[in-house]
Fold these 2 entries.
Entry 1:
Amino acid sequence: MRKIMKKRRFSMPRIAALLLLACSVFFLAGYAECADEETAPKTHSTLSDGTVISTVTESTAAKNTAEAESKTAVILNGSREEEKTGQKKSAPVYHDSIYNALRKQGLSKDHIGLWCSEHPVSTLNKLAALDPAKQKKVANASSYIRKVNPQLSVKTAWREAMALVYYSQKYNIPSDLVISIAKAESRFNPGAASKAGALGVMQVMWKVHNGMLRSKGIAATREHMFDPERGVEAGVLILARYVKVYGTLQKALNRYYGGRMAHSYLKKVNNNMAHLQKHESNTGY
């Protein structure tokens, strides 16, 4: 044995030194690992509502899960902020005439908001953007329509009133004239249909004008003519085109009525205009 130890040149002091060195390396490595854990910065994100989402994990899978949850929480928080922003949007403000008309009909501005939500593309959504004089026209028209045809719902009356004023302005036709024509044609009934094929509030001949109405995006089907606002736009657009072609309102009305001199029709429209103006003076809006 002594010969073997001597041959391999090992000695007890050298072995002890090697063991001491190995122990020192082991303890130093353990200390460094602990120090890294204590000094490593904690990564986290704090949301605007105070929620802290930690992304420090003990394994790669846990880290991925935490990151996914963190992103989801941020997205959800963004949605909350959008909802809060939406709630902070100011409600539409109307002219006093609108509030007065609603009050006399037992309604409030909340009804307009409800109708707008039920009909997202309704012209009622643009009521607040009209100038005061036009809003006054809408208020008077809504009460006038209900006076002429009490069987119509208040929602239909307000949708028609807004459409009559809005599209009159869009196509540059006097609103009093358009309202008077609607009364003469159908008494504001959006479901009106004649034996000759005239449809809707303005009694538009679908079989004659369907191509143009489709191309303009006003009415894709015959049934669309019974919508109170589509029917109004169709009639006002056709009347505006006749004015452009024939040069005067009287000639345009003759063409609108069927292309013949209709003195009785013109007289009826004129009487309706006088009746409307009297109604407007009496309402005090």
Entry 2:
Amino acid sequence: MRRIVVAVAVVLAFAVLFSISPALSSLLKINLLQLLGPAQELGNAAFAPLAYVVGSIGRTIEAARVNPVLEEQAGFLAAEVSRLKEVEAENRQLRSLLDLPDRLRYRGVVARVIGRDIRHWNQSVLINRGGADGVEREAAVVSSRGLVGKVIEVAPRLSRVLLIIDPASGVGGAIQSSRQTGIVEGTAAGGCLMKYLPRRIEISPGEAVVTSGLGGVYPPGLLIGMIAAVRPKQEGIYQNADLEPAVRFDRLEWVMVLQ
């Protein structure tokens, strides 16, 4: 209470001082200021905590007003960054697909995967291109990574593609290094198995398997996958090998239907 009284007295003194006639000598004003100096410091000390509190309240109110705006702007920016990343990823996939005709010497129609068979999630997909786009039944389908499968159903603007990992699928394959041929079939586990390989040949994990061109559906030289493991030799003249497909079917978004 005492500090508040002193502060009020200081304010009144300064009011009186500066209302005095201009004729009052500057020396008197200086002396009065020197005399009231300690009281001024005391008044400043009394009002400093109050000024700090008032300033803090003002800053808090301003922050509360601005923060929701900043949060909303940050949300918009995060969404835009995510969208641009998706566009970049899509452009990379499309560029890779558009380069395929030059690498494979085949023409094709680019299509987006728009659905999967709910009865066999990994075995077939729907694409957004059909007969009106030049897609034909039994046409080979590829991605930028390798062989996807073949078209089994065609509508004007829609087609179904049987994936090479379907147990009903059969692809003529060849081990790239030895040119030994066999049949690549899908498995219930979502992989591939190369069958009818002669027991007499040596097969090593990591060897590439490509389409052989036998059968007339798939052109030769398309990458199917890599040898993952050789199954123990059994009775008979053949052995089998597990393949790791080149295509990540769980991430398949864009394909090309060869023509």
